[in-house]
Amino acid sequence: MKKHNFSAGPCILPEEVLKEASKAVINFNNDNLSLIEISHRSKPFINVMNNAKDLVRELLNVPQDYSILFLQGGASLEFLMVPFNLMKINGNASYLNTGIWSKKAIQEAKGFGKVTISGDSSDKNFNYIPKNYEIPDNMDYFHCTSNNTIYGTQIKNFPNCKTHLVCDMSSDIFSRKIDVRKFALIYAGAQKNMGPAGATLVIVKNEILGKTNRKIPTMLNYQTHITGESMFNTPPVFPIYVSMLTLKWIKKQGGVSVIEKRNIKKAKLLYSEIDRNSLFNGTALIEDRSLMNICFLLNDESKKDMFDKMCEDAGINGIKGHKSVGGYRASVYNAMPIESIKVLVDLMRKLEKN
Amino acid sequence: MKKHNFSAGPCILPEEVLKEASKAVINFNNDNLSLIEISHRSKPFINVMNNAKDLVRELLNVPQDYSILFLQGGASLEFLMVPFNLMKINGNASYLNTGIWSKKAIQEAKGFGKVTISGDSSDKNFNYIPKNYEIPDNMDYFHCTSNNTIYGTQIKNFPNCKTHLVCDMSSDIFSRKIDVRKFALIYAGAQKNMGPAGATLVIVKNEILGKTNRKIPTMLNYQTHITGESMFNTPPVFPIYVSMLTLKWIKKQGGVSVIEKRNIKKAKLLYSEIDRNSLFNGTALIEDRSLMNICFLLNDESKKDMFDKMCEDAGINGIKGHKSVGGYRASVYNAMPIESIKVLVDLMRKLEKN
Q1: Cβ(A35)–Cβ(B65) under 8 Å?
Q2: Given the DSSP bridges, would you call strands A153-154 and B316-317 parallel, antiparallel or unpaired?
Q3: Which of A40, A171, B260, B298 has the fewest CB atoms within 10 Å, i.e. the most exposed one?
């Protein structure tokens, strides 16, 4: 029995993607060679890289004056690459603190200059997104995290920024339409809606680079990877290939706008049940609820073992909440079919009836 | 027909590894979930990570006071992590210049302090390994590249160093016995003898770290990854898994000493033919010849098209030499069966007879 995979990440990927990826590990491109034993400078792999970039550009409608990069190191490496590339010496950057990942980004930026926290939801264990905050003038950039996996909150409206808007979209990129033009730099670890762990997508407006006079080590300089077309050194071949397949799958579904509608429908189904069911409560402020990570608590702890057993018997995987919130977290990324959510909702109803 | 894959990297991996990896992309650990859609904090993946580390420790006989890390970013990121972690402020490090990768490492270190080139074979297009060089006193470390993929040279005897010996072993780790105790830090991109592109192995003597007073960004600090057990952030799950399978395969063959004997036999077969055959010449100094990358030239350019066609017809892949040396390069990594080398040698004989 295939499981209902609610894992927060690495997470569910489309089955047809997994099948094609599995095949490519044995025989890629019908060349009788494995994808992972050919040169990254060979035509078949250069095609993969170009297709992946083209699909990102098409799906997110990325303007031509932005570069699309596939890097390594995850969002955690971006936490330092962003200030290295964008913060002036003795500069100042504004950050929105909406959870553990924001905090880590803030911590890293402090190694490079002054950090101004423009909004902060730590007072309520990050269960909401700060609003009506002011971003001071003369900031080198403003940084925010679009979706907070652990707390189940999501920025619905990005601020109109006088400075460069930088966003960590690791956990909701390709899940909804975005206006790339609003952003100066977007980064995202692949391992939610894009592919397996081991690749990082960066979308950067070319003109913002090279302005800090900072001496940047080669591998940490975005310009290196723009010039090298994400092949300055050997790229993570398999994660990029699977990302390309997943992007192709998104396109086949009708693109990001179709995916977004589906995600709204999926999330609504589960949130409605959480709100209706007397046994459960959502943890995030309603207006800030994430479409990707749905966090909820069981009111009556004595029913926990029973519910956990029901979930396990139904093949539900990865639904345990993060320790800093507790309860449950259903991650319902793009590849999650609504049928799996229905299974969960049915169990919640059953539990209430019992 | 399965090809004879002489690619320089990413390169040939054992067939049984590819088969198991392919299966895991669909159903890993018989859990009815793909390896690439489960949490890296789940027990099955933590087992993979621990097995991979244990196998490295066992196969290379790594002492307990050394840490074993699986990182991202390839050797190119290590080029800057090494000076970041080991070079004192206003410090000085000694480097051996044996090719393009050494050069890149040197270039990067210059961003952190003074670099002393203790040996340099650029005068003869890197076709030999410098010997009898002096490493000055008071160096923060000495850095060398054990095998030079492009030029087909390999260090046979590592220097006895008063300072920390740091070595880029990307293209020959696990191909021969090494005495880890001689080294302070070893690093290697996975994509030759260890696995697919996207993981970097680091073996570091714990006591050498934390001595520079340099402020190191979190992700670039080896100590972060020691403390986080290579899980500070989401690791590159698939490349690490396939590396683990490859290390398991090495163990099954009888370990590194058996592999080394096999590699000597394989290389001897091809070098003997290069030396015997009137049409071919080896490019590297005989005593410095690499067991991994065998570079040779065709004396008579008019026979090139014929030989290339013969190779293609025989299913020989990736044998074109790097542009900076020309001719041919047969990369004969661990997973390359001697049968493939015999096919190549037979063609060389046939060409001479014609």
Answers
A1: no
A2: unpaired
A3: B260
* Residue written as token pair 């087992």: B47
Q: With the C-alpha atoms ordered B141, B146, B149, B154, is the resulting torsion angle positive or negative?
A: positive
CB B118 within 8 A of CB B136: yes
CATH 3.90.1150.10 residue ranges for chain A: 255-353
User: Is the CB of A234 less than 8 angstroms away from the CB of B189?
Assistant: yes
Greatest extent of chain A over all pairs of C-alpha atoms, in Å: 66
Q: With an 8 Å Cβ cutoff, is B313 touching chain A?
A: no
Q: What is the location of CATH 3.40.640.10 in chain A?
A: 15-253
Calpha distance A289→A269 (Å, rounded) = 13
Query: Which band of pLDDT confidence, cut at 50, 70 and 90, is reported for residue B2?
Result: confident
Q: Is B131 on the interface with A (CB under 8 A)?
A: no
What span, in angstroms and rounded, lies between the C-alpha atoms of A87 and A82? 8
Catalytic annotation present for A249: no
C-beta neighbour count of B131 within 10 angstroms: 13
Contacts with A, B 9-38, CB within 8 Å:
9-13, 18-19, 21-23, 25-26, 31-34, 36-38
Phi-psi region of B79 (alpha: psi -120 to 50; beta: other; left: phi over 0): alpha
Range 92-121 of B in CB contact (< 8 A) with A: 104, 107-108, 111
Give the confidence band of A163 by pLDDT, cuts at 50, 70, 90: very high
State both tokens at A237.
Answer: 């071949």
- pTM: predicted TM-score of the whole model, two decimal places: 0.97
Inform me whether the pLDDT recorded for B354 exceeds 90. no
Interface contact flag, B218 A33, Cβ < 8 Å: no
Tens digit of pLDDT for each residue in B150-176?
999 999 999 999 999 999 999 999 999
First to last CA, chain B: 26
If you average pLDDT over every residue of chain B, what do you get? 97
Beta carbons of B74 and A19 less than 8 Å apart: no
Q: Is B232 on the interface with A (CB under 8 A)?
A: yes
User: For the complex shown, is ipTM > 0.95?
Assistant: yes
Confirm or reject CATH 3.40.50.2000 for domain B255-353, answering yes or no.
no
Count the Cβ atoms, other than its own, within 10 Å of residue A7. Answer: 24
Question: Is the four-CA dihedral A88, A200, B204, B332 of positive or negative sign?
Answer: negative
Q: Residue A121 — very low, low, confident or very high, per pLDDT cuts 50/70/90? A: very high
pLDDT at B348 exceeding the cut of 90: yes
Closest partner CB to A233 (pick from B19, B33, B74): B74
Residues A239, B317: C-beta atoms closer than 8 Å: no
**What mean pLDDT do residues A322-333 have?**
97
**Topology of domain B15-253, per CATH?**
Aspartate Aminotransferase; domain 2 (3.40.640)
Nearest-CA neighbor of B220 among A76, A216, A189? A76
